[in-house]
Specification:
This protein has 8 helices and 7 strands, in the order E-H-E-H-E-H-E-H-E-H-E-H-H-E-H. By secondary structure, the protein is an alpha/beta fold.
């Protein structure tokens, strides 16, 4: 893997452990010579994961729509900042640059990005691994809901299993290297 796209909050959250998890992930990416692709901000968990990656000699590619870059929240020290014209273009560029996707805790934007990239995988638009770094068991309620959706027949078990989960970034990256996409399509 050359680059991992990380989706996460532009807020730090209310538990310092979330910032620690972002820092640990950035440090782990740099230690494994894996570049970071992310939303380009200097604030919140986004800024923390970028700062850690840069601090440990990793490359960081930020992708930000012009409307946000104009508000001066873009990180000033990135390897590369790509400015797009829309959020849709931003997500496409991020997906094209990455070999896998990890979600840290975040809000609506993080959830939307995670579900969209997972849907793209379910539809066969890509075969890249997708995971959540489950810091402080943040994703447990969502994972329970996803299991319920699978049990109710709305998410195929093979598609539910596409989402890799760990609270340890090293373990998640190991699982990424072993990832095999399911052979079950959305329509079969």
């Amino acid at each position: 893997m050359n680059r991992i796209c990380v989706y996460c909050g532009s807020s730090p959250g209310n538990d310092p452990a979330f910032l620690e998890a972002a820092d640990h992930l950035g440090t782990t990416l740099a230690a494994n010579n894996i570049g970071l692709v992310y939303g380009g901000a200097s604030i919140g968990l986004m800024g923390a994961v970028a700062d850690a990656t840069l601090r440990h000699g990793g490359e960081v590619h930020g992708v930000m729509p012009r409307s946000l870059a104009d508000k001066e929240i873009s990180h000033p020290s990135l390897t590369e900042l790509i400015v797009t014209e829309s959020m849709h273009e931003r997500k496409t560029v991020m997906a094209d640059l990455a070999d896998g996707f990890i979600a840290l805790p975040g809000g609506l934007g993080t959830f939307e990005e995670l579900f969209e990239i997972w849907t793209w995988a379910q539809l066969g638009f890509h075969q890249k691994p997708i995971g959540v770094l489950n810091s402080q068991n943040f994703f447990d309620p969502l994972l329970a809901f996803l299991d319920q959706s699978s049990s109710a027949g709305f998410v195929k078990p093979a598609h539910r299993e596409m989402l890799l989960v760990s609270s340890d970034p090293e373990e998640l990256l190991t699982r990424f290297t072993a990832y095999q996409p399911p052979s079950t399509s959305k329509l079969s």
